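Tokens in:
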């Protein structure tokens, strides 16, 4: 099984959180975190470490909790399984939000049913 040498997120700036499809690594794998991102490593539902912008060579020494969880040498490298989530910290303008359909609300003063929905664009002057 080939293991990936580089982990990074190159998607759009409107995605708030993105989970990498890659979950099997060797120590020595490169992690690239862009200026507007942070990367969080998870294993067994536990956050192991947070990486800010930069390029990192993954070693168990720079993910301290991981070092306690694994220690299986193969060819001079440690193989490990983890999930990587990239968090986008860029301010995205003009992000649409709203209800997918209208819903009924009882007017407390006149006791009539009103169909209510909402939509807007976040970060816009609209």
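Residues out:
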């Amino acid at each position: 099984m080939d293991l990936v040498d580089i982990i990074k997120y190159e998607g759009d700036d409107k995605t708030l959180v993105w989970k990498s499809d890659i979950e099997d690594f060797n120590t020595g794998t490169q992690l690239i975190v862009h200026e507007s991102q942070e990367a969080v490593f998870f294993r067994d539902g536990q956050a192991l470490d947070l990486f800010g912008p930069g390029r990192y060579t993954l070693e168990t020494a720079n993910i301290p909790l991981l070092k306690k969880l694994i220690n299986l040498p193969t060819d001079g490298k440690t193989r490990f399984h983890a999930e990587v989530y990239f968090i986008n910290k860029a301010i995205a303008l003009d992000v649409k939000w709203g209800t997918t359909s209208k819903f009924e609300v009882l007017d407390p003063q006149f006791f009539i049913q009103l169909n209510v929905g909402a939509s807007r664009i976040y970060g816009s002057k609209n």
